[in-house]
């Protein structure tokens, strides 16, 4: 999972509810000049950020300030059943086509609120697969698409094994017990990082996020991560939508060479963030924000 450096909303943003034709979603909404007064000419555009498996809108907190300083409105969203967005007790509600249609409804709502500026779509990991599915249903709402640390098909064998174990646990155990088991299995480096200054508050917020995420959302989307087909050629045929494939220099979900190849197949800009792994948004937020804004500026 992405580990946000903080769950505290920066001054440029506010936590609010985005009302759409498919229901209400919790978002962080950041604007140039803050919510007390936008830039005179309005934002260059609006970025819609979609989190990954076990994540939430807070995964992008460190990107909000630099992206608003670059002139963009940024809306990061909890999908249905993620953290502060409610979700039903029905597994079919979390199938990829449903989540993709939610994303299209979110884009329509955001575009209506932002005064008609272009919407730049960015999906991280699972969020990239959902973003791809939304674009394949209807690319019209989007000016660009960025797939961050998201590959061409299912995740690699090691991650598939971890997800199968997690799904089995979620099917039989309470969320709190699964959380404790996950913490016990953390690699030593991650455990040391979690024990650093201010870690108690951050860990409690991560635990709260986990407990408020619907288990059926995790079970259903986890299955999709292990069975996702290769839809790169379908996406490559979507013209004239500019595309970017962005990742860290290392990735434990999809091999970096797979993402290199995917970018070639898509005719996409390929961006690698040095020193980052599966979550460039938290590993190297300044560099990641600069890469995103630079891509959007060109389109």
Write a compact overview of the structure shown.
The chain has 299 residues and is an alpha/beta fold. It has helices spanning 61-69, 96-113, 126-137, 157-172, 175-184, 188-194, 199-212, 215-227, 232-236, 256-266, 280-283, 285-297, and strands spanning 13-20, 23-30, 46-50, 73-77, 119-124, 142-148, 243-248, 269-273.
Describe this protein's structure.
The protein is of the alpha/beta class and 299 residues long. It has a domain at 13-152 and 230-297: Alpha/Beta hydrolase fold, catalytic domain (Rossmann fold), CATH 3.40.50.1820. The protein is 44% helix and 17% strand. The protein contains twelve helices and eight strands. It has helices at residues 61-69, 96-113, 126-137, 157-172, 175-184, 188-194, 199-212, 215-227, 232-236, 256-266, 280-283, 285-297; strands at residues 13-20, 23-30, 46-50, 73-77, 119-124, 142-148, 243-248, 269-273. Strands 1-2-4-3-5-6-7-8 form an eight-stranded mixed beta sheet, with helices on both faces. β3, α1 and β4 (73-77) form a beta-alpha-beta unit. α1 (61-69) crosses α12, α2 (96-113) crosses α3 and α4 (157-172) runs antiparallel to α8. The longest helix is centred in the middle third of the chain and has 18 residues, at 96-113. The two termini are 31 Å apart. The model is unreliable at 194-198 (pLDDT under 50).
Question: What CATH architecture of the domain at 13-152 and 230-297 would you give?
Answer: 3-Layer(aba) Sandwich
- The secondary-structure class comes to alpha/beta
- Residue stretches low in confidence (pLDDT < 50, at least 5 long) are 194-198
CATH class of the domain at 13-152 and 230-297: Alpha Beta
What number is the mean pLDDT? 93
CATH fold-level name of the domain at 13-152 and 230-297: Rossmann fold
Radius of gyration: 18 Å
The CATH superfamily of the domain at 13-152 and 230-297 appears as: Alpha/Beta hydrolase fold, catalytic domain
| Main β-sheet description | 8 strands, mixed
Strand content: 15-25%
- Please count the helical segments: 12
Q: Could you give the order of strands across the largest sheet?
A: 1-2-4-3-5-6-7-8
Gross morphology is: globular
Give the number of DSSP strands: 8
H/E topology pattern? EEEHEHEHEHHHHHHEHEHH
Distance between the termini: 31 Å
Share in helix: 40-55%
């Amino acid at each position: 999972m992405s580990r946000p450096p903080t769950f505290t909303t920066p001054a440029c943003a506010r936590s609010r509810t985005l009302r759409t034709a498919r229901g209400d979603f919790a978002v962080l909404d950041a604007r140039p000049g803050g919510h007390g007064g936008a830039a005179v000419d309005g934002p260059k555009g609006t970025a819609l950020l979609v989190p990954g498996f076990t994540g939430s809108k807070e995964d992008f907190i460190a990107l909000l300030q630099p992206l608003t300083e670059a002139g963009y409105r940024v809306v990061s969203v909890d999908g249905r059943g993620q953290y502060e967005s409610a979700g039903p007790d029905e597994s079919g509600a979390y199938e990829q086509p449903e989540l993709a249609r939610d994303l299209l409804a979110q884009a329509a709502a955001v575009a209506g609120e932002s005064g008609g500026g272009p919407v730049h779509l960015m999906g991280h990991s699972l969020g990239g697969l959902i973003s791809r599915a939304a674009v394949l249903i209807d690319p019209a709402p989007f000016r660009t698409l960025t797939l961050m640390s998201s590959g061409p098909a299912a995740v690699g064998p090691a991650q598939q094994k971890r997800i199968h174990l997690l799904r089995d646990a979620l099917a039989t155990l309470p969320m709190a017990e699964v959380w404790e088991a996950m913490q016990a299995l953390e690699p030593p480096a991650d455990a040391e990082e979690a024990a650093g200054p201010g870690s108690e508050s951050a860990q409690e917020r991560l635990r709260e996020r986990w407990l408020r995420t619907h288990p059926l959302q995790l079970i259903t989307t986890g299955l999709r991560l292990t069975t996702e087909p290769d839809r790169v050629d379908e996406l490559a045929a979507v013209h004239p939508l500019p595309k970017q494939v962005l990742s860290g220099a290392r990735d434990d979900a999809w091999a970096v060479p797979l993402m290199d190849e995917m970018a070639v197949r898509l005719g996409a800009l390929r961006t690698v963030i040095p020193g980052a792994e599966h979550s460039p948004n938290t590993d190297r937020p300044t560099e990641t924000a600069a890469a995103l804004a630079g891509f959007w500026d060109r389109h």
